[in-house]
Amino acid sequence: MANNELIAIITEGSAETAIMELLLDNQLLVFSRQDLLKQKILRTRSASQFQKLHLNSATRQKIHIYRILDSRNEHFKLGKAYEKRISKIDSLYTRPEIEILYIINENQYDAFKRSGLKAHDFVNQCITTMPKGSIKTYDYVISYWEPQLRNLVNTIQEYASKTTDHFLTLLLHYWFSNLEKKTVERSFFDHYLRWFVLKEIFPQKKSLPFGRPLTCMATSYPRRGRSPNYSWR
């Protein structure tokens, strides 16, 4: 990501906005709030409105746009006079719906695929382990995911392994985005990276970038076929 460009994050709804706010404010993305256009998540989904509201300023920085949405049918065509202000436009899809993250986190993905229901309906009708409430509202999403940020990251990565859509894996911080989560047993590289972070970078109890405290329990070098002795606390 070029250092001299601004980032514009455009989200489709409140749920997507909440997830992006959590990832952003807990330093789990490859950029910070200071890198954002207007330093906030935007909801300006119309290209004509976006260029009217955000591309008439005098700044010389180019803008990289990320659109986070679930529909491939929503077009975003800027006028030719504004195209030179944009370095790239990436569309990150949450198909079939953003609720798929709940389903994966609650270990209900296989049941969902067999059900024939839409993701929203499946969560409301079939998952009983989640708190009651309006699952797509900003406050609900924050209250559900904020206590389990690591699960959120892992769920996003697992979702990416089940679809051709990259979704947010393109934006996750390198600590997490380079680790494959497709199998239950972590790869040797995964073990080594975690051991290095715990043993060399955080030898004492500190806060990780996502705000959770850490006690280092890494006492042995990871060997192939064997996990090192470490734990998150």
Layout of helices and strands, plus pairs?
Elements: E1 6-11, H1 14-25, H2 47-54, E2 63-69, H3 80-83, E3 86-93, H4 100-105, H5 109-115, H6 119-126, H7 138-145, H8 149-161, H9 174-177, H10 188-201, E4 206-207, E5 213-214
Helix pairs in contact: 1-7
Short overview:
This protein has 233 residues and is of the alpha/beta class. The chain has 10 helices and 5 strands. A hairpin with a 5-residue loop joins β4 and β5 (213-214).
Key structural traits:
233 residues; alpha/beta; 10 helices; 5 strands; 11% strand; disordered C terminus
Description:
It is a single chain. This protein is an alpha/beta fold and 233 residues long. The chain is 36% helix and 11% strand. The protein has 10 helices and 5 strands, in the order E-H-H-E-H-E-H-H-H-H-H-H-H-E-E. The strands form 2 sheets. Strands 1-2-3 form a 3-stranded parallel beta sheet. It has a two-stranded antiparallel sheet with strand order 4-5. Helix 1 (14-25) crosses helix 7. The radius of gyration is 20 Å and the shape is elongated.
Q: Distance between termini?
A: 33 Å
| Strand neighbour order, sheet with most strands | 1-2-3
Oligomeric state of the chains present here: single chain
Helix share, percent: 25-40%
Overall, the morphology is: elongated
Average pLDDT figure:
76
Largest sheet: 3 strands, parallel
Strand content: 5-15%
